[in-house]
Design a protein that fits this description.
It holds the Pfam family COMM_domain. This protein has 166 residues and is of the alpha+beta class. It folds into two domains: 99 residues, no CATH class; 60 residues, no CATH class. It has eight helices and three strands; from the N terminus they run H-H-H-H-H-H-E-H-E-E-H. The protein has a three-stranded antiparallel β-sheet. Helix 2 packs parallel to helix 5 and helix 4 packs antiparallel against helix 5.
Length: 166
């Protein structure tokens, strides 16, 4: 992290820091690296992740840790601003990272329903009525799309289960 704070001018530091924070919990490196090596960016990401984790995801404590490091005050304030602006995204990404370290986490879903007009066709229906598309996030940061075809008997069980919830 010390090499990140050595970046001059302030605008370049801000650009690199913003890219690091927005991509903190995801695989890959930012596109604007200011001629920094990949291992410097990876080390900075790992340091930020460990500080956030050690501070129990309390971003005010994270700011206090940065204040105590003796880094340039102007750059620390810039980093505080970036953390404040990306607070909800950081916490959401941290939660996804924590959950996906044990299994894949659903980050998005979409569904398609096939409508059948007429009751006589529904009794002999052989193809799925519902298609569910899940986007999952694996612990290594890669997203995966999974498609489920749900037939009428499973769909009926799902509807009955949802209706019985009080």
């Amino acid at each position: 992290m010390d090499k990140i704070f050595q970046i001059e001018p302030l605008e370049a530091f801000q650009n690199v820091s913003e890219k690091i924070i927005t991509d903190l919990y995801y695989a890959g490196t930012p596109s604007v690296l200011n001629n920094l090596e990949d291992d410097v960016i990876a080390a900075a990401k790992q340091y930020l992740i460990s500080v956030i984790s050690e501070c129990n995801f309390d971003l005010q404590l994270v700011k206090d840790v940065f204040n105590s490091k003796g880094w340039p005050e102007e750059k620390v304030k810039c980093l505080h601003g970036l953390i404040d602006r990306n607070k909800s995204d950081l916490l959401n990404a941290a939660l996804n990272q924590y959950n996906s370290s044990y299994c894949e986490t659903i980050v998005n879903f979409d569904w398609l329903v096939k409508l059948i007009l007429g009751t006589s066709e529904l009794k002999t229906l052989k193809y799925p009525l519902l298609q569910l598309v899940l986007s999952t996030l694996h612990k290594n940061g890669k997203q995966n799309n999974v498609i489920y075809d749900i037939h009428k008997d499973i769909l009926l069980k799902m509807i009955n289960a949802l209706e019985s919830i009080k």
